[in-house]
Predict the 3D structure of the following.
Amino acid sequence: MAHRLLPEWHPQDAVQLTWPAPTGDWAPLLERIEATLEAMVVAIARYQRVLISVPDAATRRHLAHRLACLGVAADRLILVVADSDDTWTRDHGPIAVEHDGKLTLLDYVFTGWGGKFEAGRDNTLTRRLTDAGVYACSVSSRELVLEGGAIDSDGEGTLLTTEACLLNPNRNPTQNRDAMERTLQAELGVTRVLWLANGHLEGDDTDSHVDTLARFCDPGTIAYVRCDDEADPHYPALAAMEAELKALRRADGEPYRLLPLPWPRPCFDPEDGHRLPATYANFLIINGAVLVPTYGDAADSRALTALAGAFPGRDIIPIDCLSVIRQHGSLHCLTMQLPKGSLATHT
């Protein structure tokens, strides 16, 4: 395929992260979220580099020292001062496409999930990192509002997404389904879009990002959230989503191999009691490993076992994400993979 949206399992140069500012939304939980991010960096650096944008020079110095103390080799770490509004790199980071063997990073518009939160600095972060010489390939600015967590690619022309997000008038109000499919085909090279009409998680600010619900593990396998508690308010919508997934077909007409992921016990915010979006679908695929969010729940081990079966030959690494869901995201939301050839070697 001459033009394609790369899948997450494509060989990677690095994983990109955005470090929280001391005065940002993470301030009340800063030590906890930093500990989680540090665990992620330590795990990822065993396999590849980690690019981290940091809010200021003081944070850069502190983080370089801290990660060195944790055993992260200096040549696996790239720290760049570039301030941000928040830490959700999946949604403000670049999206990689390959065209005739040449890599391009697409810089889409990020509006804080349809204007829910301030996102001015996040929206310019990719351009500022480009100006700093971080990326080795070309970076192209786009006019479409699109977040990385809203789409998932099989690498063979099929894109999985949700109607609730991509067709939401708070993103691209002039784009109906047909127009959106034409745009995705033109810009990402996809030939098929699989739309999920059902599925949501309480506490999710993204309008049902697909990376919280269902993910490609390979071109023929989709892992998805399944709720087995009929008394849970999520049950009807997730059961309907499961039926949709069973009805989907690959480009060759064959059904997908479906991998249900377990349903953890409800997690609630300790301050005001609202439900938090705990999901095992928010895993991250890197070179040689898969990082899986865990929540101190009995279902954690079942999720790890299920994903180990989906990714033979890759290490399965649990990451405690109880702190991450306090701000309504999880592990995958914090990251963006940078495919091989995208990162400048001199950084």
Notes: The chain is about 25% helix and 25% strand. Residues 3-339 form a domain with the L-arginine/glycine Amidinotransferase; Chain A fold (CATH 3.75.10.10).
